[in-house]
Amino acid sequence: MSDSTGVLYVAYGNAARKQCARSIATLFAHAPGINVAVVSEQPLQDIAHLHIYHPEADPGARTQKTSMYALSPFERTLFLDADTEVVASPAPGFNLLQWVDVVIAQDCNRRFADCHWKHLPDERVATLDEVGLNGDVLYYNSGVIFFRRSERAAQFFARWHEEWQRWKRHDQMAFIRALQHSPVRLAVLRETWNTHVRANARFVWHNHRAAARPEAPH
Amino acid sequence: MLPDPMLTDAEREAVHALLVQRRPRRVLEWGGGGSTLHWPALFPEIDWWTVEHNPQYYAKLQAQIPPNVTLRLLAFPAYHELIVDDVGRFDVIFVDGRQRVACMAAARELLAPGGIVLLHDASRARYHPAWLYYHTAQEVLPPDPARGRDPRGLMLFAEPRIVAPRPGCGVVYMAWGTNALYQTAASLRSLWAIAPELPALVVGDTHAAAPFSTWSNVTALALPLDPFDERQACGHKFLAGRVKTWLHVLAPWERVLYVDADTQFVAHPRRGFDLLDAWDFVLAEARSGSVENSPFLKPERQATAEWLGTGLHLYHNSGMLFWRRGPAVAGLMRLWSEEWLRYSDWDEQIALLRALLRSEALFLTVPYTWNTLENATLLQHAYGTRIARREESRAQRVARGKARLTPDQQPGG
Fold first, then answer.
1. Helices and strands counted in chain A (H then E)
2. Cα(A89)–Cα(A6) distance, rounded to whole angstroms?
3. Quick one: three-class SS letters along B287-351?
4. Are the beta carbons of B310 and A96 separated by less than 8 Å?
5. Is the pLDDT of residue B212 over 60?
6. How many angstroms separate the CA of residue A120 from the nearest CA in chain B?
7. Is residue A211 part of a domain?
């Protein structure tokens, strides 16, 4: 992988930085020497990485996460949530970027219609209304995203950030609203690519919310 | 002595007879060679144009061509993107080079009134889609089985089929054989119960397509293509990839929905047509599985997984395809045909995934629920049951009478 390829993390708070360091260690086991950049209010200790300083903005750090396109120093980026463990090489994801703008896995809820959050009624209702189709659209897990630089991708990620800012809660709902307005060429992988079931994980085991702070939105 | 064209004796005689009989003023030839030197020297009154892609071959020919030959070296895609303002019209077009299907498509616009196109090696399955571009297809010389794996064959095409784009939306079906005929009729009835305004196009063999010619709001198109492969196992003889990948050529509407015959509409397809405001192509994921873990066509799946770098990419069910007419989809469909021809098997869906990735089209994958066996949100699809593709033998198909739909199967009946 060339220098313009790398992995981007966002990690705010001690728990997230600890998780991030752990994730990077698992990443290096499968992709030794790959470039790593971490967006945080302070650098990680004892790990080779590029520190990208960005002031803290919201408890869930979604301001930075949804700005991943703008913050990434790489041409081809793998974004990883801090609460992930890498169990295989990221090379297949980067390979897919030769044909598409974004590579992402399906969420364990395959359709938006199947997602129910009691604590997010307003955003869910509005998203259902805007996306239409009674929510009969694919739903994606935004914790692991490969993307490349392109005009389409730039527009999509800018829109994602904008959509997230409307409620500042759930970035995955914002993702599908953004996709509706700013289409990108998308490769969709099955859930086992990025799953919270450790035994099934093929690329990433996602220990959801292990890095979250108590005040972060679900 | 004149150099020989790379044709069999019988082919050479047939071409010679056609040139004598038709006395063309202008001839275009895709793929230069012995013919570029042979025929123009024999018929010096013909204004002969040859398009070649290979620079070395071009240089060799250039040193020898008779004065009535215009020889052009063109790389792809310019090779098959000739336009009439640039080269004029031709009375005879001989397609014997590379990218023959694309050349056959382009030839439609370059033919003079009453002109003909000759396709060499017409028996090759990968050239069969070219037949869709013409109303008339006639065998000049049948393929010669004695030639083994490449029996060649020479076909003459006339009356180009140029589908004028029409605004609005329409639905396309593919129907070969009696089962598909009845399934298509049932699906159309379910469509019109919900969306009576939508026109349809039924493409198939004469037996299946002809009954629809009396239906209002349906265009029936009988094609000379045979999508059956008798060498395949029972249940897998129908090769949809031979036809499905070219339906965009025949569908006139701005926005098109293709559906398999064994479907029932449970909602208005407007939901998919509307998505084409932003997307070129919309299709549903397969209900389960990924490239690596379906039980059939292992070699193709394994090769595709290796090419992708992962077997976890979802793949699609090609029984429901929405598209927006335009160059992105035309390019996608060309790639689909190309990818399907690599394996030419009964399942065209993995080839579609490879084509989607290689194309420039903006495609959206929607959930399987759009197009599934139970609790569908748009199409109840009896896939896997082979209800519409139960095969008859070739002899049965040939011997089959002219089945007609009964009155109660007509819309509103």
1. 7, 10
2. 13
3. CCCCCCCCCCCHHHHHHHHHHHCCCCECCEEEEEEEEECCHHHHHHHHHHHHHHHHHCCCCCHHH
4. yes
5. yes
6. 23
7. no
Of B271, B312, B362, the CB nearest to A193: B312
* Gap between the Cα atoms of B317 and B282, Å rounded: 11
Q: Is B276 on the interface with A (CB under 8 A)?
A: no
- Please judge whether A92 and B365 are an interchain contact, meaning their C-beta atoms are less than 8 angstroms apart: no
pLDDT value at position B397? 53
> Is the pTM here over 0.90, yes or no?
no
- Could you tell me if residue A216 is inside a domain? no
DSSP B373: S
The ipTM is 0.93
H or E segment to which residue B85 belongs: helix B84-87
Residue B241, domain CATH: 3.90.550.10
Domain end point (choices B160, B186, B209): B160
Judged by DSSP in three states, B205 sits in coil
Tell me which amino acid residue B323 is.
W
Express each pLDDT in A35-88 by its tens digit.
999 999 999 988 888 999 988 888 889 999 999 999 999 999 999 999 999 999
pLDDT tens digits for range A147-203: 999 999 999 999 999 999 999 988 999 999 999 999 999 999 999 999 999 999 999
B310 touches chain A (CB under 8 A): yes
Chain A residue numbers touching B366 (CB-CB < 8 A): 133, 136-138
